[in-house]
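task queued by scheduler; priority normal; single chain, no ligands, no partner chains; default sampling; output format set to structure tokens
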Amino acid sequence: MKSTKALLEFWETQMKQSHTSSNFFFRKSPSHYHMMLIIMAYYKQNIPITVEELKTKLFKTSRPKSALIINEACEKGFFYLQKTLEDQRKKNIKPTENFVTEFEDYLKKLREISL
């Protein structure tokens, strides 16, 4: 019961911050959340991912919708695009330092609750 209460308190705290953090943005839809997880998984493994690869990996999301989500995430400062050295037309998508910090804090709190 203690972990349930801690999880509820954590969720309520997260929702209070929803308009000032990435929480609200990435909980808009399963596609938003899936995008965040893909980008962070690639980031953690130090593997670059291009915008086109990301669009292909998102399930049940059209390419135009994927592009809109990517652009909005970049505008909000969660991700940024970086041209590749070998082909200037391709762009890798990467998380910003602020987003990485926020994501790490989120994971840390979840780990603490699950103990």
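post-processing summary
- The chain has a mean pLDDT of 87.
- The chain has one domain: 2-114.
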